[in-house]
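Q: Got a minute? One more chain.
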Amino acid sequence: MTNHGKNPEQYKKTAYEQEDQEIKKIKNEIKNLQNFANLDANKLIEYAKSDKISGDISKTQIRRIFSAVKKIQMEVRRESFDKQKDKIILLKPKLAYAAKKKNEVKHLAEILSECIDTIKNKDDFERFVDFFEAIIAYHGE
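A: Always. Here it is, folded:
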């Protein structure tokens, strides 16, 4: 196989650029949603299947973040969305911390943070949980 004059570092850079482009595309599509609840099920699955979102993230890393989301979901169902809105927003610094601690969490943190920005009501939050569950289903091995 020929490398067309590129060294391995150039190939690696190109792969990272492609990965970043896919993440940017997903983030922009999520950002443009009026309500996260309107995310089409097929699109949700397409995004969740993306290898770029989860990369080499471990099952433990995904589950740690997901357990915080599920705890908030139980509280939303027990009380109200409005009482839990701050907890949902405060997931963003937790995601940022996890991404700084483990680089493989970076893309997942970016996507989930973008999703959190679109959550305006209980239906949006429930769709967010659906999305996160789909990510785990495809990448939680």
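A: Residues 8-139 form one domain.
Q: Perfect, thanks.
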